[in-house]
# Entry
Amino acid sequence: MPGRKKDERAERAANLEAARNDPEALRAYAAGFDAARTDDVLADDIADEHERAALEKTWGDEPGFWGWLASTNHKTVGRRFIYTAFGFFILGGILAVLMRVQLSRPENNFIGPDLYNQIFTMHGTTMMFLFAVPVMEAVAVYVLPLMLGTRNIAFPRLNAFGYWMYLFGGVMLWIAFILNVGPDAGWFAYVPLSGPEYSPGKRVDFWAQMITFTEVSALVVSTEIITTFFKLRAPGMSLNRIPVFCWAMLVTAFMVFFAMPTVALASACLLMDRTIGTHFYNPAEGGDPLLWQHLFWFFGHPEVYIIFIPGTGFVSTILSTFSRRPLFGYTAVVLSLVSTGFIGFGLWVHHMFATGLPRMGESFFTGATIMIAIPSGVQIFCWLATLWGGRPKFKSPMMFVLGFFVIFVVGGMTGVMQGAVPVDLQVHDTYFVVAHFHYVLIGGAVFPLFGAFHYWFPKVTGRLLNERLGHVTFWIMFVGFNLTFFPMHILGLHGMPRRVYTYQPNLGWGDLNMLATAGGVLLTLGVLAFIVNALRSLRAGALAGASPWDAATLEWATSSPPPSYNFLYLPTVAGRDTLWEQPADRPVVTGLRSDTRQVLVTRVLDAEPDLKVEFPDSSIWPLLASLATTAMFIGSIFTPWAVPVGMLPIAVTLTGWFWPKKKLAEERPSPEIKKEHGETWMRLKEQEG
Amino acid sequence: MSARQTVDVSGLPTFAFGHRQLTWWCTLSLILMEGGMFVVLFGAYFFLRTPVPQWPPGVGYPQPFWGTVNLVLILLSCVPNYFQKRAAESLDLRGVRIWIAVLIVFALVATAIRFVEFGYLNCRWDQNAYGSAVWVIMGTHLLHLITDALDSIVLLALMLVGPVEGKRFVDVSENALYWYFVVGLWVPTYVVVYWVPRWI
Amino acid sequence: MRAMRLIKNSVSLALTKARSVARGSSSTVYCLLSTVYFSPSAVYLLTDLRSQSALDPAGPQAGRIISLWWLMFYVTGTVFLIVMAFLVGALVRSRRPRRGETLDVPDVKPEPARERRMSHVVLTGIALTVVILFVFLVNSFLTGRALDSVSAKDHLTIKITGHQWWWEVEYENSTAQYVVTTANEIHVPTGQPVLFKLTATDVIHSFWVPNLHGKTDLIPGHETVTWLRADSDGVYRGQCAEFCGFQHAHMAFTVVAEPPDKFKQWYDSQLAPAVEPANQSQAQGRQVFLSSPCVMCHTVRGTDAGSRVGPDLTHVASRQTIAAGTLENTRGHLAGWVVDSQKIKPGNRMPPNNLEPGDLQALLDYLQSLK
# Structure
């Protein structure tokens, strides 16, 4: 019996899908059906339709521009986050091309030093703060709740707030740049160069405040990720069944927790040095420029792993799907991620080997730096074993992962070289390092990210990207990337320092630089090919269906694109590769209200159902609160009084945000609503008990 | 009779205290990141102190009187805080109202004393790096006092006029947890600001 | 072993711009890579300038570092090839599907025996990684010790102060009158260890001569030290390696390593005050110098000009370059620099000088006499 019911449901699911938006057709279809034999299946279908409509009404964004601004749905916010981050990626990329043009010939006059210094600072800042970290969080904001099997990310209003802060911070920085007030002291803003004496004007202030914006954003998103990871998983998804990508994002979120406050503090001190005359970094008054370097790199090195670890999460996910087998060494991979997270905080001094620290201390950091190659190695070996034991299918997401292998291993090798203090002293701050970290960051994060774009595009849009064009994109990017950055290794060894706006002809660096520029153009074409593919596929791509790749994780258990409430009934999980192990007839969760935004909270370790909590409605307050915060942050660049004065609107908007809607609370048909107080509360307590 | 297997969760409660509740994780996050920030602040203080033979450099020791008063006061505030948390967790609205109010008084007085404290640090923030560090450490803690006082005031207002639900009591309980953190921060802050210059 | 050395030699030949090529002599040895890399038009301004390269060591430290680098290059290169071999192997071998199994159905429960075998291979890989990394760590430590061993009681001490965007060079001596101050051109005796004391007055710079040693930063409020020893005569170019603002790109210097007797000669000549004008034009030039804004920043010992904001010009004509390695020290370049240095090195601290043509020629005559 169950087997036959399964077939029937599969057959009818397609028809119902078609009839979904047409109640008339649905009713007709149901009436024509032999109700006697399968009335329970039919009853399910009709109940489903009611549930679907109710959930859509409850969870959907409100219509109109206002509703658009007020959305707190993780998919809406996640999409915005991804598009915005990709926009900054394009902007940062344009700057990179401009720099490549300037450097293509010795003594080129295309860009002068003033603009060049702004451009390379903006390139680094945009790519690190406005693209790489946010885009990883953005993908997590979209994918994580689906992968974990819940209706929305934890703290959805905070999520919207985080997005607006990020957007306003990025836009502020770019407007400043366009108005010729772009920062020009490097993305690392070393003092005293970035201090009040050597960077007068407001350029560095905008940079320092942008840090605060993105820091606020990254921290709130990390809070959501951690809470969602621990508390909002589908019943049965115990810790050892959580998809590796979610683990990667958890480690990333914790790293953000400890890294970001450091840089926020450092940049706040810088801003205070510049505006109210403190002396944190002023050697003349007992301050120390090295304090900045320690604080900055205590953040800056983990930052690299904050970018790279989500990349490994993409790789594990995509690799397993297209190797058609579970990831080899799940536990080893997860432990590697966690240990990378820890070791990542013990490396910062390797950015400072040339500052003349004691040799013994340097040896310690050499050890730590070299040691971090071990967890990366473990992951590489596990991935290779996954490929070896599987039957790889060369779909476009997989191609990017294979490209990642080649590029990232090279980057890892040069990383080990630089871990050795003596080698670092030679290659530090040369194009060798530029080559190295582009191999690690583009290879380790951007290639997997493009793989992830190709992988989840059908889930987000409902349409498949063009496979052929995907392959073309990959090959152009792969060749272009290596052509751009491989020559830089040689340039660095031949003494070309970083951050120079030009170089002299007799140094012999011209030809390799020209080659790198040509590669840069090719790389740009690759990105363009992706954009063309995405835009074309949005309109005319093949329909994806719920699970075009037949993958194992829960986001493929719902339609593409997913409805506002993600799952009609929350799924349950009985194995690590859920959808492969139980393709159909998984038990589902019932008993959650569909007329309010009720979400199931489960226990930390075994994901047993624990609570039904209610999520807040869509709200405009997060936007207003972020506008108020933006006003204060930007104001504080110009006068310190903006801080106390600007606190007031922030307090007002935050109060508005947290104040419950009275009407809504009273309408709620729940035993909790009490107009009178006193002994009635005891009933609540009983319910609690 | 449904054809599908289900896990029925309709009987689950809608709120709980402690780590079962989402807001607890938000509070924990705040505590982690801000605790980390204070560790870094103290680290910066000692980093600046290390190469200098005399500390504080060229200025007098901070006067600990008002700081000590504040220490006692802030430690005492644990009492109303304890009762606030207990009242919240036994869903005692009257008790919650009273103890939040008492806590607000403590927080506001501590904030007021903090402003007095700045006058007895014997340095200015723009005098030297020592002054900058001390002022910023004190200021950051002040910020915590102010935000938690404001938070408590809003909560009190909510408990007086707003629609009261079970989850509001969870908010009160979380607020109490965060206040413990603010109290816990002040002890090392007090030691670093007032006594480290004399001892080290 | 022989083959290994051959590979190494050919790679380093290809990567290294050797002196003969720098001098323009063509050679058939340089194959593909070299034609890609070497610019045929590269003509050196300074006859003895070695290419600024970490791959072409001229002292013990750069030598030790590059041997460590080559060791790591070969080992990691081999590892890379092995990993790629496994990758390609995994992709090309198509596991024959078992009976009744279609390729697309995921292999949810992989065969335990195979998994075990694979885990043995993975564990071996991890163990090898650990061993290799340990070898690197020990080698790195030993090399680090070797770098520090280039020190001796009998040494020269040179104090370098980084400025935006030039290098102040001061040869320390216990007797004040034996102290030599110059700029952007550091002469050292070959074979003798030199102690460099480094600091900066404005922002952070980094002192780097790739052919001799790695970098050491110059940090305001700190004094860092580094040792150098040049084992072969030559002119080595160095460059600031820490971003220091507008003209970071044009903050170079040269290290001239010469035999001790030649060095002594140079040192003695630098000790002397500026030469007196030998003719009418030079005398007029000195007058122009002393009556124009030049004196606000520059020193010419033996005259009233004693400011130390800019480079010491007492023996400016003896230097091979001007503007911190930006231009060859010719009359034309000097003229361009004096009149409008902002065109050449935008943002540098020297203001333009609007001089009468006659005055300018006289000034140039004077400056060029300051050997």
User: Anything to note?
Assistant: Confidence is low (pLDDT under 50) at residues 13-47 of chain C. The first strand of chain C starts at residue 49 and ends at 50.
